[in-house]
Design goal:
Blueprint (H helix, E strand, L loop, with lengths): L7 H12 L5 E8 L6 E9 L2 E9 L4 H11 L5 E7 H10 L1 H6 L3 E6 L5 E5 L12 H8 L3
Length: 144
Amino acid sequence: MPAEFLTEKELRKVFWSFYGKRKSIKSFQFEVGIREGNTDLVTIEEYQDNLQVNSFEFKVRDFQKAFLQAKANLEYVQRSWIVMPISIAKSMSEKFQNQLNEYKEIGVMGVEPGGRYEVIHKVKRENPDVKLHSAILKIALKEI
């Protein structure tokens, strides 16, 4: 099966062209240094009258790597998302169902070539034990 996206950069651009229009997004930054190797995207979003920190890891194929990165991001975010081409996101979510069910703060989104995205695996709870990180504080302060 051919990949819907050739590069992570292309996937990220197409995803952001839709997701980035959400009115709930108060601030964001790509390539955030909250862990070694950077997090692909961090957003500060309004959710149920509270601010919420989300991380996003974009991968064209390597779900296991994306999962490990999303898990590492949980130290500093309430919700961590894996974003992949839709067909791969669906098949990998089934294959890795046990790990996703264990880490209820991690969700999976699939992106179609036109940019529409779909939540394939919902985040089932927010991470209650988030540590403050200066890089995320700077993103939050952009809005002030």
